[in-house]
Automatic annotation (TrEMBL):
Pfam families xrefs: AAA_16, TPR_10, TPR_12
Protein name from the UniProt record: ATP/GTP-binding protein
Domain of life assignment: Bacteria
Domain Orc1-like AAA ATPase: 141-214
Species in which this protein is naturally found: Rhizocola hellebori
InterPro entries the UniProt entry points to: AAA_16, NLR-like, P-loop_NTPase, TPR-like_helical_dom_sf
């Protein structure tokens, strides 16, 4: 016994017991009577058991459930051994086997008589079941949600689920909503208890205190919290018998594993969360976990869905509500309501960030240091320039700014830590990758697994893990999946702007930063293969264009980016520019083109082919949307740059020469354009041969400008000769061949055979519909040609009706203000007047002219044509009363008078311009070599 004592008295057993053990040794070794020894031994064993129980109870407050069970098992085993074993053996068993190694049971050396964590002086208990207050917080936009939750105790809600789950991303204000519900219900005499489930210690301590408040005896609590009984069963028995209305709020229940026995779902009915079986009670949970299956997996399997609970998403605030949160803090000192709304949008409507921003601006106004953001506009500018760090900073500091910045970022870091614990270590990398994209919806098609798997960052990723990662991120509100049916376009996801800022900052300081930029560029390029000029690809390009252009900025700002990725980023951004121009967003296309050009210069240099190609695009849009003569002059300057870089007979340089010829013709010099194409043709033949498609496209352009120069018969004959060659090269139903047939019909009509042209278009239209679809822009252009030649063949009313159909389709596909839509409307107005209604034609031109001026400018040739035609039909409307009896054929004959000022020139405006773009396909094809 003495040797055993020298090896170390058991931790948690008093020195008095150690002395008693020594005395007991003397009893047996010095010949004392056995009855006295046994009695003293039983007394000592009881004392040991009592003290160990106290240590177990205290340890249960802060220790794990597993340790508690081990302690309790040791006590039960010791109790059963008291009768069967001698006292010394019992004492030895308690000490050596009562607690396993590594727990507060046995220490190798002599230690204090209580566990180390209990040896320290404890202060007063700070745990409270009272709901937290909302002092200093402004809550807006939640009245409807709070009202619905406080209505749980009304008669009409008696069949509603009694478990309500508030879910949303960190900082969304779930706790504030729950606190507001608690505040209202307490005024209605509802007993409210608040338990935190942020970690197991807080959850277990809170539930222990709840059991005590509900009337559990010390013995019941002791048995439940030492593992002898079920603590959740005890709490729920007491809740079921509570006589008044009650609400249990479990806050921050992000990790559902803490709420249930190991491996069981929340629906098992054996954990801390259960549906109350009385209308007097309800449970309100706040959690980042928004995945329905995480809460209802057992019920989903049985087809019961959400029957045991109801989930409420706590989303972001509207700009108006977010602005009011800011104004609640600052009043009018930091700016107007409009400026506050702009800041609310930049902060993504996140209540946490809005409240912190409001407090920041109040503090900044009290201490207006130079450079500090003191207004809503300053705050937006700071965020745009440097993200969260520009306002709060990231350095370790005790300042309020540093604390706020860490609070915002740590809000989401906790979610990522939780996903890592759940077996999703790649969640952080995936969120970082997504954060490199623009603040726009991200199409799921962008996450191409084949491209992802080629990256070192995601080399081991498979489709199942990618889906699990996306579900996990969405479940905690780190991304938001837009799977509603409101938008018929591709499915998308979004990232909150502040999460994007924070994730991008952390990615920037990791070794994966450059790899992720290159990967994002490759993903966007792989998803952007569709022709941006093809209307069928516009839904995809609408989503991809913002990311393509944003990634070029990211690449230009990166400290290290490989040249191949920079070139891919530049080419993808240029294709996005073509999309903006194709859908008629001329202002966007030109503005973005300037930005893309500057970025290409920074990344690749001024003489790189991608930089020069952007200058090509800028010249094209200058001609299309502003001034053809200016486009001609820009191409004249570009040609020297291309020839200097690539040589005079390089295909790309020849393509620029062809563009120069086109814009020379469109600027009003068709004969000069024709002559330039005659000079280009032998150069192209030397570069490409005589049967290449690009050579045939040059022949198309030469034929077109020959007709425009005043020889429509020569143009018709040239297209007649080209048609069989095109058919041999491409096949009879290739779109390029169909375009040649349409141009043949066009110049046949202008050669004096409108009926033949009409019949050719009539045969051609069903082929276009079969090859490209009934609503493809090229098909609609053929219908427009058919309408024109129907009118010129003697039926202007039929032409008007055909154009009416085309306009409605074109507006739906391209929008009401697309340049081609405006040209189609001009043709409709023309044939409306020619059909005998000059007043309607006048009114249509009156409505059209301001749209044309806004789209192309007041000096554009199309704008000038519309202005002339408005004047013409205004005069005709004034004369209509006196000319009402004029024979219809006489009016129709007027349409064939070739006059620069007559509206007969107008329909040719659209159709010649449209098909000339196909005639000059050579330049576009050559430029595609660059891209």
């Amino acid at each position: 016994m003495a040797g055993w004592m020298r090896r170390g008295a058991p931790a948690g057993i008093s020195t008095g017991l150690a002395f008693s053990a020594g005395a007991l040794t003397n009893v047996f070794t010095q010949g004392w009577s056995w009855p006295v020894g046994i009695g003293l031994g039983v007394l000592v064993v009881g004392w040991v058991a009592w003290e160990m129980r106290q240590a177990v109870v205290q340890h249960a407050i802060s220790g794990s459930g597993v340790d508690v069970v081990r302690h309790a098992a040791a006590i039960r085993e010791a109790r059963t051994s008291v009768v069967a074993q001698e006292p010394l053996a019992v004492m030895r068993h308690l000490v050596e086997h009562g607690v396993e190694s590594g727990t507060p049971g046995v220490h190798a050396n002599v230690t204090p008589t209580v566990p180390a964590e209990l040896a320290q002086e404890h202060g007063p208990g700070m745990l409270s079941l009272a709901p937290p207050g909302l002092a200093g917080l402004s809550m807006r936009g939640r009245d409807q949600l709070v009202g619905e939750l406080t209505g749980l105790y009304r008669r009409r809600a008696r069949h509603a689920p009694r478990v309500c789950i508030l879910y949303g991303m960190g900082g969304a204000g779930k706790t504030s909503v729950a606190a507001s519900v608690a505040d209202r219900l307490r005024t209605q005499r509802v007993q409210v208890w608040w338990v935190s489930a942020a970690n197991p210690e807080e959850l277990h301590a809170g539930m222990r205190q709840l059991a005590s408040c509900l009337g559990a005896t010390d013995a019941q609590i002791e048995r439940a919290w030492t593992g002898l009984d079920s603590a959740p069963d005890l709490v729920w028995r007491l809740l079921a018998n509570h006589p008044t209305r009650w609400l249990l709020i479990v806050d921050n229940a992000d990790d559902t594993r803490l709420l249930t026995p190991s491996g069981e779902p929340p629906t098992s009915g054996r954990g801390w969360i259960r549906p109350p079986h009385t209308r007097r009670g309800a449970v309100l949970i706040t959690s980042r976990e928004g995945n329905l299956a995480a809460w209802t997996i057992g019920h989903l399997a049985s087809g019961k869905g959400e029957s045991w609970c109801r989930m409420y998403r706590v989303g972001m605030l509207t700009p108006a509500d977010g602005a009011q949160v800011l104004l609640d803090h600052t009043g009018s000192h930091a700016g107007s309501a409009t400026q506050a709304a702009a800041l609310s949008i930049r902060l993504g409507g996140l209540p946490l960030a809005l409240n912190l921003a409001g407090r920041y601006l109040v503090d900044a106004r009290r201490m207006p240091l130079p450079g500090a953001a003191t207004t809503f506009a300053d705050y937006v500018a700071a965020l745009d320039s440097g993200g969260i760090s520009a306002v709060f900073g990231h350095q370790v500091t005790s300042s309020i700014d540093g604390q706020v910045g860490r609070l915002i970022e740590r809000t989401w870091e906790l979610s990522l830590d939780l996903l890592g614990d759940r077996g999703h270590p790649q969640a952080r990398n995936l969120l970082g990758l997504l954060s490199l994209l623009a603040d726009s919806p991200i199409p799921y098609q962008l996450l191409d697994l084949k491209v992802l798997a080629r990256s070192a960052v995601f080399s081991s990723l498979d489709i199942g893990e990618l889906l699990r990662l996306l579900r996990a991120l969405a479940g905690l509100g780190l991304i938001e999946s837009d799977d509603t049916d409101a938008d018929p376009g591709p499915a998308t996801l979004r990232i909150h702007p502040l999460i994007r800022d924070a994730s991008r900052h952390h990615l920037h300081i990791t070794v994966h930063h450059a790899d992720c930029i290159a990967l994002a560029v490759q993903l966007t390029a792989a998803a952007s293969t569709g022709d941006p000029d093809d209307a069928s690809n516009w839904p995809n390009w609408r989503l991809l264009a913002p990311h393509a252009q944003h990634l070029l900025t990211v690449a230009a700002d990166a400290a290290h980016i490989d040249r191949a990725s920079a070139e891919v980023a530049a080419r993808t951004a240029r294709r996005a520019l073509r999309y903006w121009a194709a859908v008629g967003q001329s202002a966007v296309a030109r503005k973005q083109a300037n930005s893309v050009h500057d970025l290409c210069q920074r990344l690749l240099g001024p003489d790189h082919v991608d930089t020069l190609a952007v200058r090509n695009d800028m010249a094209d849009w200058t001609g299309q949307f502003e001034n053809p003569a200016a486009a001609r002059d820009l191409y004249a300057k570009l040609l020297s740059a291309w020839e200097r870089v690539l040589g005079t007979e390089h295909p790309d340089a020849l393509a620029v020469r062809a563009k120069l010829a086109d814009w020379t013709g469109r600027a009003g010099h068709p004969a000069a354009a024709r002559d330039q194409y005659r000079q280009i043709l032998p150069q192209w033949e030397r570069a490409w041969g005589t049967a290449d498609r690009d050579i045939l496209a040059i022949h198309n352009s030469l034929a077109h400008w020959t007709g425009m120069a005043g020889d429509p018969i020569a143009a018709r004959d040239a297209y007649t000769a080209l048609l069989p060659v095109w058919e041999q090269v491409c096949g009879a139903q290739h779109p390029a061949v169909l375009a040649v047939r349409n141009n043949l019909a066009l110049w046949t009509g202008h050669s004096g055979d409108p009926r033949v042209a009409r019949d050719q278009c009539t045969k051609l239209l069903p082929i276009w519909e079969r090859v490209c679809g009934a609503e493809h822009p090229d098909t609609l252009a053929v219908r427009a040609n058919l309408a024109d030649w129907t009118g010129h063949a003697g039926n202007p009313a039929a032409a008007r009706d055909l154009y009416t159909e085309v306009v409605s389709i074109w507006e739906r596909i391209c929008g009401t203000e697309h340049p081609d839509t405006l040209a189609i409307k001009a043709n409709l107005a023309h044939w409306t007047g020619m059909a005998g209604d000059p007043a309607a034609a006048r009114d249509q031109y009156t409505a059209l002219l301001p749209l044309q001026e806004a789209s192309c400018g007041i000096n554009h040739l199309d704008t000038l044509a519309d202005r002339r035609n408005l004047a013409y039909w205004t005069t005709q409307a004034d004369l209509h009363a006196t000319a009402r009896n004029q024979p219809a054929q006489q009016r129709l004959n007027a349409a064939h008078v070739p006059s620069e000022h007559h509206p007969h020139t107008l329909p040719v405006r659209y159709n010649l311009a449209f098909w000339s773009r196909r005639s000059t396909h050579s330049a576009d094809t050559a430029n595609d070599v660059i891209t």
